[in-house]
Amino acid sequence: MEFPRIDPVAIGIGPLQIHWYGLMYLVGFVGGWLLLRWRASHPNSGWTKDQVSDLVFYVALGVILGGRVGYVLFYNFGKFLNDPLWLFEIWTGGMSFHGGALGVLLAFWLLARKFGKRYFSVADYAVPVVPIGLGAGRLGNFINGELWGHPADVPWAMIFPGDPMGVPRHPSQLYEFLLEGVVLFLVLWFYSARPRPAGAVTGLFGLGYGLGRTFVEFFREPDAHIGYLTGGWLTMGMLLSIPMIILGAAMMFWAYRHDDRPAPARK
């Protein structure tokens, strides 16, 4: 299958260039903001539209700052040691989901203190829309022709520009778009549509993302400057995702074991 060569620059006005990858971040933030405002408009939601706007703003900061710091620390710490100012060169590319996730968790804590809410009332409310940004980001990776997969002979394999081998490969960005974006969003959105024990929705996110990312790592080429960590199969993405699986499952178990909600009245 031929790779659809899309200009990574969506809009160019003189020296000003707006890339599709950057627009994908905007899609994620705006899409999440609209859906959370819609839920906030329901009776007894516990949220106002102004609070949702603050939530999305804090999360955006957590994603961008945490994602950049995480990429530098997890994936290219050596380059940072040689050139510390590279940390601030966001326009050169390089973002980490796991770093962004840590930044978002910190944003939830700050928002919980600001609004006087319990931590998981913030986290459980917000995480169902996070896959919108994850899926949009993977589409941005695909448009950029980056983070491709292993050589493959499946009918949908593609030859990506910039690949020195020039061989058909798994479009692993689209696998991640489907699993981390579409599937995870649907699971979380419908699961969170009914009241759940505190922490259960957040735990399901960690479990679902960790499983999806670990699965795709078997098809995705590891970062060239890191390669496989051991055994010819363990990647940095796996190493960072496996704890999410364990922690997410433990959180769900803990949430249901310590569910302090009143039992529904019998009719």
Automatic annotation (TrEMBL):
Subcellular locations according to the entry: Cell membrane
Pfam families: LGT (PF01790)
Any one Gene Ontology BP term: lipoprotein biosynthetic process
Annotated membrane topology: Multi-pass membrane protein
Entry coiled-coil feature ranges: none
Keyword presence, Endoplasmic reticulum: no
Protein name per Swiss-Prot or TrEMBL: Phosphatidylglycerol--prolipoprotein diacylglyceryl transferase
Native source organism of the sequence: Alloalcanivorax marinus
Organism lineage: Bacteria, Pseudomonadati, Pseudomonadota, Gammaproteobacteria, Oceanospirillales
